[in-house]
Design goal:
This protein has helices at 6-15, 28-35, 39-65, 99-110, 114-122, 127-132, 144-161; strands at 93-96, 136-139. With 164 residues, the chain is mainly α.
């Protein structure tokens, strides 16, 4: 979505110039306001973005698999399951929070209303479904130290299984 890039031009054709900042860059907040209040808009955004994201991830994985000094590749993809990328990975790790914490963090981080936060949350696949298809679950409802400890434990276990 770089300024003057093909993907950004496609987004502007679909959603209009209002999604751009004065300098021509994508204003993610404005785009979010549009798509999280319009299911068809979200579907259109996903149709534009997801194939390109999957393609780029596949390219990078193939590149990294050629290297002997890379024991594992981590894909940080909030929509990995929704985008049908589960078959691209050996394990799915899900970092999740309870609904109340999710609402509080969204409203605080993005300075949006509870209603807007609920629109965003409800546009996503239910956490319970994602838990069912995940290999590793990391509860992120506590403080950052607790989450980091859990991630490090899981990572150590994975790397240990790889013989590293």
């Amino acid at each position: 979505v770089k300024p003057k890039g093909q993907v950004l031009e496609e987004l502007v054709r679909r959603f209009g110039n209002s999604i751009l900042d004065k300098d021509g860059a994508l204003n993610r907040r404005r785009l979010g306001c549009i798509v999280f209040n319009d299911r068809e808009g979200l579907k259109a955004l996903n149709g534009i973005m997801h194939p390109r994201i999957k393609e780029e991830i596949a390219r990078r994985i193939a590149e990294l698999k050629k290297r002997e000094d890379v024991p594992a590749v981590v894909i940080d993809a909030p929509l990995l399951i929704e985008c049908g990328m589960v078959d691209m990975v050996d394990q799915v790790w899900l970092v999740y929070v309870d609904r109340g914490t999710q609402i509080a963090r969204l409203t605080g981080r993005d300075d949006i209303s509870v209603s807007e936060a609920l629109n965003r949350i409800d546009s996503q696949m239910p956490t319970e479904y994602k838990k069912a298809v995940s290999d590793v679950l990391i509860d992120n409802s506590g403080d950052i130290g607790t989450t980091e400890k859990r991630v490090n434990e899981c990572w150590a276990n994975l790397v240990g299984c790889l013989g590293r």
